[in-house]
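User: Here's a chain of 247 residues. Predict its fold as tokens.
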Amino acid sequence: MEKAGGPQIVIDGTRSYTFHTVGEVPNWMKMTAEGLEVGDKVRIGMCVPKGATWALRSMYPLKLKTVADFIKVDSLAQLDKDEPGKNGKKYYFDNATSMVYYKFYGATNRSENDNQVCGGGKCPMIELTLAGNLSANNGDCRSTLYSAEQMALVPPELPVSTETFMANAGPEPPADFGHGSSRPFTSRSPVNGRNGQWSEWSSCSVTCGNGYQYKRRECNNPMPQHGGGPCGTPHYKERNCKLDACT
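Assistant: Prediction complete.
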């Protein structure tokens, strides 16, 4: 969640950063809080299409495999309340706007020489799976979430470089300029992506009655590199499950 240019992410937990889908709504989303360290907090909101069923899952820093492992709260104020033992487990679903909110808490620190985006290469993450009403143009909750004035706001302009370079400067950069001469890379040939192994089927989405299970695979065996082609689909499978009747 760190950016090199443009608006910066506020990591004190006082603001929400919301995610909306324009067009076809994906049935699986994964949010990763890159760059967060101990003491940092970020609240996110994800738009859930009206009429769709949904489930949350997180594997780090806490293993929360089904929505039943989370703690449902009734307001953003309760979500923001600092409660050791509950932080990172709570979520809030706003029926009026169809937004589900979750708060990331930084769990590790990076050392001075760490080249990972999070300490030890592990970042807080949350997954949202969706099923049902996922047709186009119903995953954008901004009209119910923001006022007309907020929707009309223009994003700030990013800084523009005015530095110029001579077209006939020769094969070597000027003395004391940059990091030295540039040479063609020989190790950046395109690598096409391949899917990894399927995960195990998830637990049933309900504790009684009819529900669903899912499993997924990631494009990481290997990931596409240097302009290589994407992995094939599907990345997500779903099936029905049935438990004992609810009483």
